[in-house]
Structures are given as C-alpha cells and as structure tokens.
Specification:
Length: 217
C-alpha cells in the first residue's frame, strides 16, 4: 500500500513542483515558487515605474536638455513621452550617421576601383542611384556597418589638399567624404572590402575604366 502523501505544491506561474521543504509564496492570490516570485515582483515594480512615468510631467531641466539636443517637445510632455522622443531622436541621428558612413565607404571603394582622384561624390562618372542598392544592402547588416566604422575615414591621399585648392574647394568639405586606401588607410584586404567590391562591381560594369578601354579597342 502506498503511504498517503501530501502532494507537492505546484507553482501556478511556471508549473514546476515546489518541494515541501521550500517556501511557498502567494503572489496576487496565486501559489508561486521563489524564482517566479522574484520575476513577478520585479515585473510589477517595473510596471509601476512605467505607469508613473506615463502620468508624470517631465521636469524642466530634462526638457531643456532634450531641446538642446534638437528634440521637438510639446508643453506638458510626460516623463515617458520625453524618454521615447529622446530615444527616437538618438536613433535617427545614429541612423543618419550610418547612412553617411556607408555611402562614403561605397564611394571610396569605387574611387579606389577606378584609381580616381575624385574630390566629391559627384565627381564619380556614374549616377548616384547606381550605388543605392549596395549602400542599402550594407546598411542592413549591423556587422558590416561596424566593419566600415573600423576603417579609416577622413583621409584621401597626399595630393588631396592641393587638388581641392586647385578647384577652389574647401578641403574640409571634401576630406570627410573619403576613406583612403593604403598603408595607413582603409584595408584593401579586409572582408568588408571584398563584400563591397562584390556588391558594386556588377553595378559599375560598363562604367569601369578598364572595361571602357577594352571596348574602345
Ligand atoms: Zn515558478
């Protein structure tokens, strides 16, 4: 005959048995194990904080700081709404910086491919939209974007300053547009260079100087 035993309590949150030696907790009328109690209390605390932020008007210094960053804020904004506006503004800023970096990188890889000394993107002998697919594809991968940030930007070779002067351009306006390839510049052997070449070469096809020279023959 099996001895009659008091069944183990079961946690009504995770469904695991609670050993009779363990402490049984009651949370909002339900029996829960200690790990679940911890999680539920933490979630409850977070929810309370979040609800409080939705009800409370943001403090003036916090609003002023956000306005200084360029965030547009209506009067009476709540703490929660201000947090969302600042986060969205920062995300948009980071995104715009990524787009600029990636576009500069793609143009720089093309410049290198053409062995050209373009000072501005618009010096490239093909329409800008030719590269938009490559830019978009690189932007879609956080890993690729990180690898681009690892390359050296803001240098375009030793003649750059002189060429800017000759064309009456401020080199500050142009310098930042480029990654320079060379011993102290961006790395031609890097995986991101190979990825980018593979993306742009099919697009560049008919515009490539070597191809044009072949066709002229
Ligand atoms: Zn549990």
């Amino acid at each position: 005959m099996p001895t009659s035993r008091v069944p183990d309590e079961v946690c009504q949150q995770c469904g695991k048995a609670i050993s009779r030696r363990a402490h049984v907790n009651i949370f909002e009328g339900r029996v829960v194990c200690t790990p679940c109690l911890g999680k539920l209390s933490e979630a409850g605390r977070k929810k309370e904080v979040a609800e409080h932020a939705e009800r409370t008007t943001a403090e003036e210094p916090d609003i002023a700081r956000a306005r200084d960053q360029g965030v547009k804020i209506s009067p009476g904004v709540t703490v929660a709404e201000l947090g969302r506006l600042v986060a969205a503004h920062e995300a948009a800023g980071a995104r715009a910086r990524d787009v600029e970096y990636v576009r500069d990188w793609v143009y720089s890889v093309c410049r290198h491919t053409f062995c050209a000394d373009w000072l501005k993107h618009s010096d490239a002998p093909f329409p800008a939209k030719l590269l938009s697919k490559a830019v978009k594809s690189l932007l879609a991968s956080a890993e690729h974007v990180d690898q681009i940030y690892d390359q050296r930007r803001g240098d375009a070779g030793s003649n750059f300053e002189r060429e800017c002067e000759a064309r009456g351009l401020e080199d500050d306006d142009c310098w930042e547009n480029w990654f320079f390839f060379g011993p102290e510049g961006a790395d031609e052997g890097s995986p991101i260079y190979a990825v980018t070449r593979a993306l742009v070469e099919p697009q560049l096809g008919p515009h490539l100087p070597s191809r044009r020279a072949d066709e002229a023959r």
